[in-house]
Every structure is written in structure tokens, then in C-alpha cells.
Amino acid sequence: MNNYDSWGLYRSQVNFPSYKTEKAQLSKDGPILIDLDPKTWEQHLDRIGQWLGNTLMAQISYHQLAQDTVSKIQEPHIRQAITDITFHAANHIRAVEELFSLIDRHPYFFSQYGGHASAMLKETISGLKGMLGGAQGDWQMLHQLLLTNMNTLGAFAVTEQFGLLLGLSEITQITLPIIHQKQTDQLVINEYMLEMASISIVYQQNI
Amino acid sequence: MYLNATKGTTEDLKHLPTTVRPQINPDDVLVPEGYKVEVIIAGLSFPTGMAVADDGTVFVNEGGSTWPTRPASIPRTLRLNPNGKLDVFAVETLGGPRGMAYHNGYLYVSVKGGYHTRILRHHVRTGKKEILFDQIPDGGWHEPGGPVIGPDGYLYFAQGSVAQQGVVLPQGFTVDMAKHPLAHDVPGEDVTLTGNNVWSRNPLMPFPYLTETGPFKPLGVPAKKGEVIKGQFWCNTGLWRSKLDGTEPELLAWGLRNPYGLAINEEGKLYASDNDMEEQSERAVANDPDRIWHIKNAQKPPGSVGRPDWYGYPDICADGIPVWDKSKYPLKGKAAEPMLQNPPPWAGPPVYLENPHSCMTMMDFCKSDVFGHRGKLFACEWGTLAPLNSPRPKALDNGFKVMKVDVNTGEGEPFFMNKRPGPASYYGSGGIERPVDCKFSADGKSLYVLDFGYVTVTGGFMLSYAHTGVLWKITKE
């Protein structure tokens, strides 16, 4: 009877509709539709597309930082954990591309995103270093990763709201597992950051 | 004010862009012979209640942040004029509108948001808004009830519990508790506690450490044996009446878990719908029926109710059996213990018992011979949240219909339902999802039914989708 995926989410039986259908003839006594006419719907999807652009940029930036962090970590367990997180981050970039495709939109500035992401990353790291007040050690990379993951987690959580707001479970089915993964990654990063930070700060030893 | 409403056709309803509810089709629902069903509005976002004015105008509340609290949409009151024009009558800024009643040029609305529920009224012609009450403690799980206006010219309104199961528990943080971590239940009269507390994980700590919580306390605050919690006039689980200008408020009842629907019949008797305890969590209760209460104190003259009646929350089920009885032991979660020592006299039994988790919501008495069934109570059943709130397979289809109830005999039968049990989305039809309110038209010929829209439920969580709500109209042919 019900068709639930591995997340227990109901999967719609219908194909994602084309929004380019001809508008039906108006009827004096017909139902009132709120926001459901093709023109309004297209506008909503355009706005979601703009947000997805921001999400993509933030996610690419985060992935880049995760890659850089792996190369700095010596302790094998932490290094493996961050390697796994880098893998997740790459998957989540592909998920944003899938979301674009789902709403029939394209990442117009995709080719520029790499440049934007690098600039964003440098700016972010510069700000975070200032916040740490000259503290030393590679644990700071994890601190930066923690905050940038939180940033992207927020971006995907907002995207999830769009799916809920527009009755599009396909968006939720993509974003909810990502949010879950990012929450899990956040816990992992936080644990290792705290582990490294106390040793680095008190004993002046890098891990 | 933002509103994008267009006229469509029944053909449009078969190709909606909302993939969770891709079609709406009156042919997929059942009503008794001699009645026809139409779709009046589609694309509503989390509709929570409605009212009908004397001239036939229909007001519909879109609740904003509802069940669960995400996503948020614009909390507002829409107005459907008799000429078919739809506009935004009011936008709420401090919460989401829920129930609504029209009387003599005023629209009375209950609003949930923040740590307190508000009861307000709009002067319909001028749009002037007046806050009648803003001190009803809330901020938690359940809803304001009503308001309704009686033939006695008094305003009746209610407030459900903050805690879902008699104690604030982690699941509360999937809804309003995340914004109101200090919220807790408040009793309507002095109660002495048994000292039983509930251990749970604390989602507010860096790790989900264990914490102990007592009834009528915020999360993480235990109760002591013999501790007396002072009753408050402005409690929750309470039901009040007042004059229409908000003066002379009087507490009639408390211990009502979620009295979302209030209705008054032609004899002036007041009834309240109420929802059962859930079979999940660290204080889980099985087999507690949904119910409709007769609020007997409403029969007494205003100002004469010395002691409010108590309807059982947090310790007595609707069938009169204590929540800790073996017959209430849960399959999912931990069994409940008593919270109240020497509880007040129970004001039950209810006039109507319904299957657990049917989720009875708003309702209206038929006062018209034209529609038929005069004197019967038409009661919406929003529908189960199983498997989230019960692991029992038989609970999966409960609700999702409008019942016709005889409050004198306690019998009920479905009046408006899908061709198969459950919401339309269970099997891809264009029928009903979750009826939340029903009100008779001003001319007495029709019953409007407000359908909340599509909700996904799993064993672990629920998600609600905006732009999937519908206003249906059932008319006697």
C-alpha cells in the first residue's frame, strides 16, 4: 500500500511534473488555486535556484577545506574520520547538482563557483584565525571545518524548508539524509577538535 | 499582503505541481446519497480553522508554523467573499492563528505563539484588532481550543497541554519546545504530586545526558513527593468563558489534554474534542481513546462556577482507566506512573469515544433542516500519526474523515471519507488528506470542510507540506 524509502519517507508514485504545461481555461465557478498557477510556481522555483547557488558555493568551499585538513592531520583515526567527511562533502556537492536538475534549473555560474569558493574560504579562515587569538596547532583546521560545516548544514536545512513549503517531497528526500549526515559529521569534528585542542593548548603538542 | 490566487478548473486539480498531492478529485470521496462535493480552494498552507459570517463570507486561517513547527509559512486569515473573491483579511505577527468564530461583525481568533496563547478579535468592517487575552500559558505541544460563541452571548475558549504526555520530554523539542525550553504545564487547581518523575535524555545538554523531570515542571526539573503545585486561573489544559469584550473571564474546566474543537448546540450545551495520550516516549500510554467531552460547567450561570471540573490529564484515560493500568502498557516506550496524589474528582465519562489516534479536531453542530441531520455534531478527524505515535498496525488508518456524532446516544458514523480508509496519499487518489475543521454555511445548505493537507509520518518523525490544503464544500442536492 505505502511506498516508503529506506528513510521511511513516502515516495510519490507520480513523475515530477513539467511546469511548462499550457494554462487551463479559466472557469467562473472553478476552484481557487493559491500559488499553484504555472507562472507563480516558476517564480518560486527560480528563487529556490538562486538559493541553491549559494548552497553549492558554500559546499564546494567546505569540501575544499576538508581536503586541506586531511593533509594536515597526522593522527590516523582523526585523519580517517576527516577523509570520510571529505567523501561525504563531495557527495553533497553532487546532491546540490541533483537538486538543480530536480527543479529544472541549472547552476548558471557553476564554472565560477570554484573561484568564488576559494575566495570565500580564504575570507572565512582569515576571520576564524583572528577569533582564535594566536592559538597554535593543526586542531585549528578542525575548528574551521566545524564552523564551515555548520554553515552548509544551515544551507541544506533551508533548502529542505523549500521542499516542505512547495509540497515537493523529492527535495526533502535528498536534503533530509544530508542534514542527518552533516549533524553526524558535526559531532565527529567537534569531538576530535576538543581532543586535539586541549592537548595543543595546554601541552603545546601538535597531533 | 502577498496572495497569489487564480481561478482554475477541475482539470487543473488533476495536474497540480505539488508532487505530494498531485491531484484533488471530489469523485474520490464518499458522502451519503443526496449530497455533492466540490473543491472551493486548493493550495492552502497549513489551514487550521475557519468561520462563516452571516452574509456567507468564509474566513480561513493559515496557521503559519504548525504541526510540526517546520516549515513556517505566512500566518494569516484569508477571506472568501460571497462573490468568490479571495483576499488576505489579516496577517499575524506573534504566532499562528488556529480556531475562529464570527459573531455580530467581529471575528474571534485564537493565536498560538511564544510562551502565551492569545485570544483576539477583529472588527471585520474596520479591520481593527483587539487583544482580549494574552496570558494563557502555552509554548508547548498542544493547541488553543475554539473560540466559539454560545447562545448565551459568551465567548468560550480553551488551551491544551504544554507537555505531550504529562511531563515535558525530548520529543517536545521537535515542535514548540525548541523555541520555549522553559515552558511547562500549569494546573487549574492546587495539586499534590506523587514525586514520580521521568528519566529521559536532555537534548539541551552538550551530550544528550540523562535528566529527571516532574509534571508541571520544565525539562530537567524533578518533582518531590508531597509537593503542592498551586493552581492558576490562567492554566493550560483549561477551558474558560468570558463576555465578548474579554471581561469577567471564568475557568470552567481543566485536565483537557488537547481541546482543539469546541462546539455548542441549539440547547446551549458545550462540547470539546480531545486527543488521547500517545503510545510512545518515556511516559507512554496505550489504548487511550480519542473523545468528545460535555463541559457541564458551561450550563451553570456565569460567575457561579466555584471549582473547575477536571477531565483527567495527566493521569486518567478517556475510558476512566488510569494511565498506569496494565491495559495501558505500551508496546513502544516506557509505561506511565501516577503523577497526582489524591486527584480531583473525574468529570468524565465523555459523550463519545473514538479509536485512539483518530485525532479529533474541530467540529460544528448542524442547526439546519435544509442540510439534514439537525442536532448532530459533525466532527473532523485529522487522522493518526501512527506509526510515530503508536506501533499498532490497526492504528494506521484511524481518522481521516468527518464523523456525524449523536452526543445523546454516543454513536457516530462517517459522513465524509475516502473510498478506502486512510488519507488519499496512501493509495494515490485525489480524496481527503486530513480534515481539520468543518463549519456549516450561513444558509444552512452546505458543510465546509477544511483539509490540512499532506503529512508524511514514519516511525521516527513527521513532516508536513504546505500548499496542499483544501477547502471542500458538501451541499445537499
TrEMBL record, chain A:
<protein>
    <submittedName>
        <fullName>Uncharacterized protein</fullName>
    </submittedName>
</protein>
Automatic annotation (TrEMBL), chain B:
<protein>
    <recommendedName>
        <fullName>Glucose/Sorbosone dehydrogenase domain-containing protein</fullName>
    </recommendedName>
</protein>
<dbReference type="InterPro" id="IPR011042">
    <property type="entry name" value="6-blade_b-propeller_TolB-like"/>
</dbReference>
<dbReference type="InterPro" id="IPR011041">
    <property type="entry name" value="Quinoprot_gluc/sorb_DH_b-prop"/>
</dbReference>
